[in-house]
Amino acid sequence: MTTWEFPCPEPATISVTPWASGSVAVSGEATDVITVEVIGSKPNSNVDDQLEQIKVSFENGRLSVRGPKLSGLLQRWKGLELTIKAPAGSDCDIHTAAADVALVGQFGSVVAHTASGDVTSTAATGSATLETASGDVFVDRAGNLRVATASGDVQVGRANGDLSISSVSGDLSIGDVSGQVGAQTISGDIAVRDISGGQATLSTTSGDMRVMVTPGIGVYLDLSSMSGRVRSDLDEQPAGDSATPEASLELRCRSISGDIQVSKALAAA
Fold this sequence. Notes:
The protein is built from one helix and 24 strands. The chain is mainly beta.
């Protein structure tokens, strides 16, 4: 095990690149010290040669962690577990090859890129950009959020700002959202638990789509599927009815062969 420690009373800027395999875990918590710890992924594994190549520096509020060079090394990489504890509100920029990324606690802006690892982010008050090729993505809460994955699934709990998700074969699950929404997948399904306003454009080729809308708001619907079934359980209002609320949500759903269902969101318990 190798450790570093730096005094840091304010939120920092954290950069990790490149990290091959294993995991990267960053915790944003109430602390005035940044700690960095690296251990081997497997007990009793000899990772001394890799530990010697790791470069850690902290200057002017910026923590930089550089892993061993990847050239010719990835095939014999034994895997390293990187753990960072930093003050809440810190910004993170993480780049890995096959390592999982977990950002737990409170952060400002977040960027995470990985080829095959999973990405987890619990709370980012600023913008968040999360990208992975084959890994899954889980986000509890975020402001503006952009997620891209090829074959991984995406789960978002709450997005307080604009939301953009793209996937090829993964399923997309979205909890509460009220900003601009763009979500697309080729063969995956799309599910939205509660959308309350803004503009939402959802598209899938062969996947099914289920969208639940906050009750009582005006909604403009534009739903289309070539061979799938299309159904809306929302209350219809006659055109020109003065009692009809103005549309606070524009919802556009497109599918080729998938089913589309729009209904009212369930009341909070």
